[in-house]
Amino acid sequence: MKEMICVTCPKGCRLKIDEQTLKVSGNSCPRGTVYAQNELTDPKRVVTTTVPVSGAILPRCPVRTSAPVSKKLMIKIVQELKKYSLTSPVKVGQVVVENILGSGADVIVTRNL
Amino acid sequence: MRDLIIVGGGPAGLAAAYGAYEKGVKDILILEREDTLGGILNQCIHNGFGLHRFKEELSGPEYAQRYIDMLKDTTVDILSGTTVLELREDRTVCALNSRQGYFELQAKTVILAMGCRERTRGAISIPGSRPAGVFTAGAAQKYLNMEGYLCGKRVVVLGSGDIGLIMARRMTLEGAKVLACVEVMPYSGGLTRNIVQCLEDFGIPLYLSHTVTDVRGDRRLTGVTVSKVDENRNPIPGTEMDFDCDTLLLSVGLIPENELTRGAGIEIDPRTNGPLVYDNMETTLEGVFACGNVVHVHDLVDYVSEEAARAGASAANRILGKIPEHRAVHIKTDGAVSYTVPQYIRENAEEKTVSLSFRVRKILDDVKIQVSDGQRTVFTAKRTHMAPGEMEKIQLPREAIGDARDLTVSVEK
């Protein structure tokens, strides 16, 4: 039995997972099951950072991965995004990079600028 | 005369406006100090917002955009770049901007949604020299996420508040080395999830019961000394550790920004540093409501929105002539419970339950939240884990209150 704290949402449920059967308890929503199972196999996180944007009220535009990606890719994705820049107008949900570093997730804009 | 003026266009102000509009109030004005709406959410580019409110995991700017979009097709007016200087007892709002200069507006109701600001180095008296490189975590967050400036390369974080933890991760991702997070209390001040995903994920050590006892540097910070503290939070000689760093981030608490509130003669709760409120979020000044971090510091924006919607709906009720005139029950606290919001509950209001928020002073496992009227227990709820860094909420059925004069909230084994 392994114990962990679910980081999917700020509630922070205390999960217990059986290492053999991958059965999860202590979660208050289905996301907890997925989280605990991923933590044992391939931990995943949403990556958030910014990319430069020109012609907007701010010099930086916030972006994130559209889904959690392998924890190992976090810093690589932030570094990779240094190659990209945007031009205003951009809208929430607009794709900056598709399937970044083969992670299966797109990088999307999170603010209208 | 305006029906409703809202001071602040952050998450609380936006949700309050929408709450009042939904209840049928059309004449609403939001006064916002910055040029854009959204408040602190604009610099909180990390994810984790909105799981309760929208059943989706959003970043801060996305969460703000949802509310900005919701207000788009309404009659809510927005005046940005406008600072409110004073609120008078007769609900006159005195404001200033570069287009109109100084002006005064009268309102039937006012909602205070000014949020909070960070405690600074001055508030916690750290010894040492005063070089550049000591920032509040929120200031560093704004420089990095909105302006694109990384404020340092070797970082120590003092305080384990959520913003400090989030910035430890953010600066690591941008290539800085975060050497340590130092917390004077024996427990973290932030959410457990942030300890996991911001410190543990990146191998950043957390030193509990430690504090910064020296700050070195002439022009720029060159290092700090960290010492262990005893149970009275006094540094223990001989436990000093030196860190070579160019940046010290402070994440040592937030202060509700209540200058306007005090100026209007509204009663402040010394425990929350926010206004005393009734269950409809009305302050001690009739027709003036408050919500969000100006009342008490929240962990989750989702709960700010919920509270603000209630304030908006209550202001609407007053404008539409539904005025609560009933006796109020005082909510007291006992033992580990440090405060409650609201502090007063009025009888016979519309809603069947009262949402009661509070915090505890220490970490507690397997406990029972208990509400008593002096004679008997009127409500209980079980919790497997409670921590000072995590706000608790209970839904108290109004019928449980009965004819009690006051209620006491406590936590029992």
Question: Could you walk me through the main structural features you see in this protein, from its secondary elements to its overall organization?
Answer:
The complex is a heterodimer of chains A (113) and B (413). Chain A has 113 residues and is of the alpha+beta class. Helix content of chain A is 17%, strand content 31%. Chain A is built from two helices and ten strands; from the N terminus they run E-E-E-H-E-E-E-E-H-E-E-E. Chain A has helices at 30-41, 74-80, and strands spanning 2-5, 14-17, 24-25, 44-45, 48-54, 60-65, 69-70, 86-87, 95-97, 107-109. Chain A has a five-stranded mixed beta sheet, with no helix packed on it. The longest helix of chain A has 12 residues, at 30-41. Chain A is elongated and about 55 Å long. The relative contact order of chain A is 0.16. The mean pLDDT of chain A is 91. Chain B has 413 residues and is of the alpha/beta class. Chain B has three domains: 1-118 and 253-324, FAD/NAD(P)-binding domain (3-Layer(bba) Sandwich), CATH 3.50.50; 120-252, FAD/NAD(P)-binding domain, CATH 3.50.50.60; 328-413, Immunoglobulin-like (Sandwich), CATH 2.60.40. In chain B, 20% of the residues lie in helices and 36% in strands. Chain B is built from eight helices and 29 strands. In chain B, the strands form eight sheets. In chain B, strands 1, 2, 5, 6, 7, 8 and 21 form a seven-stranded mixed beta sheet that branches. Chain B has a five-stranded parallel beta sheet with strand order 10-17-11-12-13. In chain B, strand 3 (47-49) and strand 4 form a beta hairpin. In chain B, helix 4 (137-147) crosses helix 5. Chain B is globular, with a radius of gyration of 22 Å. Chain B starts with a strand and ends with a strand. At the A-B interface, strand 5, strand 6 and helix 2 of A face strand 4, helix 2, helix 4 and helix 6 of B.
